Amino acid sequence: MIRTPLTELLGIRYPVVQAAMGYVSGPRLAAATSDAGGLGLIASATMTLAELENAISETAGRTAAPFGVNLRADAPDAAERIRLIVDRHVPVASFAQAPKPELIAALKDAGVVTIASVGARRHAEKVAAWGIDAVIATGGEGGGHVGSVPTSLLIPQIAAAVDIPVIAAGGFFDGRGLVAALAWGAAGVAMGTRFLLTSDSPVPDAVKQVYLAAGLDGTVVTRRVDGVPHRVLRTTMVDHLEGARAGAQARAGAQARAGARAGAQARAGAQARAGARTGTGWLSGPRRAAALVQSARNATTFRAAGGLSWREMIAQGRAMRRDSELTWGQVLMAANTPVLLRAAMVDGRPDLGLMSSGQVTGLIGDLPSCAELIEAIMTEAGDCLDRLEALRKT
Ligand SMILES: Cc1cc2nc3c(=O)[nH]c(=O)nc-3n(C[C@H](O)[C@H](O)[C@H](O)COP(=O)(O)O)c2cc1C
């Protein structure tokens, strides 16, 4: 047994948290993790309020152990989501990005344990001052939206700066990592990619196989998806997005800025119109998903080639919509990351979708159940502590 301030705070057997993953960490994965003695988190940002309500009921039906809901403080219906968490007696709420003091207070007043995700010391200090109960600090190795500071530097820095439990994330997959995190001053670990690659994860097998085949250099941090650094599996589509940037920069160097914008607008407008003709319903079939990806490429190329800000792009989108048959939905969906994630994680199309991934995917080669995974981690952590203790005696 390894008891830490985190296991005490949450009332869980093991200091292992399953990090929130959109379209991946629903009731099945969260309940399997909690049932195995860790903490499962339902990712709610990609769910409607009604879907979240069902997910909470289903998770509570699958496990009697504590679990949590991960939410965005800037969701338009954040207050309703919090009311749902409180009414349904969900023991833990975690914030995907910056929380708000009043939301933390509302949860804490109702006895819900609050956790915030942070990527920098100043964020950890700020949320600790707002009364948050624990933080998940994620280093640059992690999957999804990431900062640039490696886990090995970020965790000791944050653990020294705040008095609340720090949950280390970014690159963890085994018992050695858990011991390392504890040595850095953390109270436990959170893992995303490792839990995605379990038999309890709902991700289609074809997609899991792509993750398993990736090496340590199989991921890339790109801003091309949604404008902020996002670690994803390196695929043909991501290479294309990155390539479009290089091409756009070269063109921008060769052409006058205004000329480039006009050219990009014309090209993207023509491409988007062509894409729009291939289908109007999203994600109900491979051709429609392909049209969506084409549309996303168009939007991104459109923005990059002209050196446009998103504000300018929206203005251009308005113009596009005025003089073409594109709907607002199509214009906006063109840059819609969740839809691209969904194409892979739910529809099982690794060729069409985006796959957020930590670098750790390059060290993972199996698909254990959550129970097998957590047991293996705890056994290895115990062995590791014994080995270290033996070093002291010799
Ligand atoms: C497929 C995938 C989807 C993710 N989706 C979300 C999300 O919806 N919200 C969120 O806050 N973080 C999300 N993340 C980030 C994770 O919560 C976590 O920070 C990260 O996976 C930790 O790094 P690791 O993958 O090396 O364990 C996602 C990560 C992955 C791999």
Question: Can I get a quick summary?
Answer:
The chain is α/β, with parallel strands linked by helices and 394 residues long. The protein is 52% helix and 12% strand. Helix 5 links the parallel strand 4 and strand 5.
Please describe what this structure looks like.
The chain has helices spanning 5-10, 27-35, 49-62, 78-87, 101-109, 121-129, 151-161, 175-183, 193-196, 205-213, 236-254, 257-277, 286-306, 310-322, 328-333, 337-345, 370-393; strands at 16-18, 39-43, 67-71, 92-95, 113-118, 134-138, 144-145, 166-169, 188-191, 219-222, 230-233. The protein has 394 residues and is of the alpha/beta class. The strands form two sheets. Strands 1-2-3-4-5-6-8-9 form an eight-stranded parallel barrel, surrounded by seven helices. A three-stranded antiparallel beta sheet has the order 7-11-10, with no helix packed on it. The chain starts with a helix and ends with a helix. Residues 255-284, 301-307 and 323-335 have low confidence and may be disordered. Bound molecules: flavin mononucleotide. Flavin mononucleotide (FMN) binds at residues 19-22, 24, 43, 45, 70, 96, 117, 138, 141-144, 169-172, 191-194, 196, 356-358, 360. Flavin mononucleotide binds at residues 19-22, 24, 43, 45, 70, 96, 117, 138, 141-144, 169-172, 191-194, 196, 356-358, 360.
Q: DSSP strand (E) fraction?
A: 5-15%
> Numbering strands along the chain, what is their spatial order in the largest sheet?
1-2-3-4-5-6-8-9
What are the low-pLDDT stretches, counting only 5+ consecutive residues below 50?
A: 255-284, 301-307, 323-335
Distinct small-molecule ligands in the complex: flavin mononucleotide
* Biggest sheet character: 8 strands, parallel, barrel
Percent helix: 40-55%
Rg estimate, integer Å? 22 Å
Oligomer: single chain
Structural class: alpha/beta
How many runs of DSSP E, i.e. beta strands?
A: 11
Which whole number gives the mean pLDDT? 84
Report how far apart the termini are: 25 Å
Q: Topology as H/E string? A: HEHEHEHEHEHEEHEHEHHEEHHHHHHH
Q: How many helical stretches?
A: 17
